[in-house]
Amino acid sequence: MEETRNSITDIWGERTPYKGDWPVRVDQRTLEEPDHWVQSACVLCSAGCGLDIGVKNGRIVGVRGRAVDAVNHGRLGPKGLHGWVANNSPDRLKTPLIRRNGKLTAASWDEAMDVIVKKSKEIIEKHTGLGIGFYTSGQLFIEDYYTLGVIGKAGIGTPHMDGNTRLCTATSAAALKVSFGSDGQPGSYTDLDTTDVIMHVGHNIASQQTVLWMRILDRLAGPNPPKLIVIDPRATYTAEKATVHLAPRVGTNIPVMNGLLNLIIQSGRTDNGYIEAHTVGFEELKAIVSKWPPERVEAISGVPADKLRAAAEILASTNTLVSTVLQGVYQSMQATAAAVQVNNVHLIRGLIGRPGCGIYQMNGQPTAQNTRETGADGDMPAFRNWDNREHIQQLADLWNVDIDTIPHWAPPTHAMQLFRYAEQGSIKLLWISATNPAVSMPDLARIRKILQKEDLLVIVQDCFMNETAALADVVLPAAIWGEKTGTFTCVDRTVHISHKAVEPPGEARADLDIFIEYARRMDFRDKDGAPLIKWNSPEEAFEAWKACTKGRPCDYTGMSYAKLSEGSGIQWPCNEQYPNGTPHLYCDGVFNTSFENAETFGYDLDTGAAITAEAYKAINPNGKAFIKGADYIPPAEEPNDDYPLWLTTGRVVYHFHTRTKTGRAKALQEAAPDAYVQISEADAARYGIAEGDMVEVVSRRGKVLEPARIGGIIPGHVFIPFHYGYWDDPGRSRAANELTITEWDPVSKQPQFKYAAVKISKAGEGVLHKIGTALGIVNDQPQKVEG
Ligand SMILES: Nc1nc2c(c(=O)[nH]1)N[C@H]1C(S)=C(S)[C@@H](COP(=O)(O)OP(=O)(O)OC[C@H]3O[C@@H](n4cnc5c(=O)[nH]c(N)nc54)[C@H](O)[C@@H]3O)O[C@H]1N2
Ligand SMILES: Nc1nc2c(c(=O)[nH]1)N[C@H]1C(S)=C(S)[C@@H](COP(=O)(O)OP(=O)(O)OC[C@H]3O[C@@H](n4cnc5c(=O)[nH]c(N)nc54)[C@H](O)[C@@H]3O)O[C@H]1N2
Ligand code: SF4
Ligand SMILES: [Mo]
To answer: What residue owns the CA closest to ligand 3's atom 6?
Structure first.
């Protein structure tokens, strides 16, 4: 065994202070000496760390960071070093399963595909393709998504396709589109190496992108450390290092951001030349934020006025800024509106389109960017605009189908609506791939009921018997990372290739092969009678995708499997003009907002009402960025006498989502074996709860029982990590989403996991307490938090 550090107790490893460049540090964990290494990248978060898979006798025996990789310079975090163990887990799904007489029983691929194809054809004949829905992931590869997207749009002709990216980064896409005209992060991770100020809004980067945090820690340990602003109601590892930590009440990002914008504008240090030359809408913004003096912000958000002033002073005076935004914004109140205010900080100070200035409307999942790019979610491939007929015609030409085959009369159906249609019965077949909605969707009692409906055929394509598969009618065993080849793109547009290292277990098949097989059996054809899907291998699929991106902002035409395999990460656009990729977008101050180019014609931030093509033509921003303001709207559910506390939910460093992988990696599972409810010292005293006591948490929708963990959160708030469902049988109700609400952001349609009203009561002394403190490990939130 070779382990360069114990990443459970030493999450980020030794400091290698930045000097001129970010030094290389190769992290490795191998259980046996590999007989060879295979190039890949980590798929356990959006950071996109390059790694090599160690293989011995046809099995994965470990991983090692790639020293040459653009993203991580060799480093890996705890999930990257341990998560691969799940590939070898004995309980991988190895054969298809079909529900017969109420029980899932083993079946052949022929039998399983027959059931799916027969039902699909029947539905299309009786009800059209609108009876079929797909709910996919942010964890497959470009090749898988693109193929699925073409099947849905040009084969079946259904608008009902979305990804779990709706729960994850729909707001990232929406905020980028609203401000800059299209998806795509403007900056580059290298900005972290030189910037003077870093701001994290609703983003616990220390736990959630551990390797990006190592890059920041190395700046903090080096010369000219950057100042850090952290906006989070909890005292996270990230907040621990903050120069200024603003801890607002949940759901008050708009008041806080408006307060900051107001102070920046009042300080007179806006970049008026930039605003004039490259933006529209500044005066409206100014009018809205002028209503948010620090004292009013304090009254609504609880953030002390002097702290807000301190943060604003940093933002107003810096010449470089990297901002990151994530779920504390995206899954909360007025998600897109609040995320856009972060873009506005950059625009009004001209801090965009050059080194040291980056906005990360962060992704979470490793391949969420690609679900959005390929149109396997509620988008059109390669950032095309569903409302621009010219864009749809380009797709029709590319796929050689009639334009009206491709649904474009309205925006594609979002995930929350997909489940609603299934609930109402108009969707009769729901094909779920690489996501576990029975744990990750809000209001689980409702989701379980939908998945169990008699008149809904549920197909689950996964590598494990997760909570959703357990409710399915057909289960398809999937090959996963390490067992299939494909490409994916991390937050800063860096594309990696992940090569197949080992064979999948049993009869498990690559997702791409499953989708292609379905297309073949459904006999989808183009206008000339040729097969619609004209590719059979990952590389051919990638070539087809490249053709789709030609001339679009996310241009991949300069990449190839060979080129991706020679180096270690290329940033799109990569084409004839930029053969080695592009670190920064919008360097010339020209954004993708022209009528011809825009991915969206925009929305009203309060209501989500779409702006029509005609109205957009009239505004004609013509390459200028949009500065859009938004005023505060109170949340859908607020605490009252019956439910007096705010619930918020999120993550811990050791687990990924519903733990299908990390829960099977012994070291990670032992470090964080169970859910918990985090409450403040004040609330603990008020309810007579001690550390480790069992606490019942009840919302209007359900209840859970969790051991208490005290401290690190503002009074009146409780936090529960959402990782813990039921596949490893806890013997009690514990999934955070039993409690959450069915509400979503009007613009991005992202569900609001980050607030709900709950009540708590002590249910027993600490006997069931088995969280990681026993190991001397404090998951995520050790500190006291100030007002
Ligand atoms: N260890 C680990 N890493 C991961 C993942 C994982 O499951 N585990 N998942 C990946 C994925 S898919 C994602 S999307 C990302 C998510 O990464 P993050 O967004 O960093 O994770 P969360 O814990 O969901 O939420 C972040 C913070 O939002 C805060 N918050 C809650 N309400 C509010 C609010 O109203 N305002 C503000 N400002 N903050 C609020 C919470 O206290 C929490 O600390 O992580 C990625 N990385
Ligand atoms: N309360 C609350 N709920 C949340 C969140 C929150 O912060 N709070 N966060 C939301 C966010 S940001 C996210 S991203 C979602 C995540 O929620 P999910 O997507 O439901 O979570 P995962 O556990 O990652 O599910 C992925 C599934 O894909 C399978 N899988 C992995 N690789 C492959 C593959 O290559 N092929 C196939 N076919 N299957 C594969 C895994 O076994 C697993 O079952 O949860 C959301 N839900
Ligand atoms: S930071 Fe993300 S991509 Fe990098 S090793 Fe950790 S989980 Fe993997
Ligand atoms: Mo996510």
So the answer is: 77
Count of all residues that appear for the chain in the document? 787
Task: Round to whole Å and give the CA distance between 188 and 494.
Answer: 9
| Residue listed under structure tokens 């992704």 | 363
- Please name the residues in contact with 140: beta carbons below 8 A apart, sequence gap of 6 or more: 367, 370, 371, 376, 433, 434, 486, 511
Asked if residue 165 has its Cβ within 6 Å of ligand 2, the reply is no
Q: Choose among 667, 724, 661, 727: nearest CA to 481.
A: 661
Question: Ligand 2 pocket, 191 CB below 6 A?
Answer: no
Instruction: Look at strands 227-231 and 197-201 and give their pairing.
Output: parallel
- Protein residue closest via CA to atom 24 of ligand 1: 650
Query: What pLDDT digit, counting tens, does each position of 358-395 carry?
Result: 999 999 999 999 999 999 998 999 999 999 999 999 99
Strand 494-498 to 570-571 pairing: antiparallel
- Tokens representing 779 are 């998951």
pLDDT at residue number 636: 79
Which atom, in ligand 3's list, is nearest to the CA of 72? 4
Q: For residues 216, 220, 225 and 227, what is the CA-based torsion angle, rounded to 10 degrees? A: 70
Alpha carbon of 740 to those of 234, 236, 451: distances in Å?
19, 22, 18
The answer on pLDDT for 779 being more than 80 is no
> Taking the CA of residue 108 as centre, how many other CA atoms within 13 Å lie in the half-sphere pointing to its CB?
3
Q: Please name which of 90, 34, 94 lies closest in space to residue 59, comparing C-alpha atoms.
A: 34
Nearest 5 degrees, angle CA 773-CA 774-CA 779? 25
**For residue 719, what are the contacts with CB-CB under 8 A and spacing of at least 6?**
234, 647, 648, 649, 650, 677, 678, 713, 781
Dump pLDDT digits (tens) for 214-260: 999 999 999 999 999 999 999 999 999 999 999 999 999 999 999 99
The tokens for 606 are: 């309060």
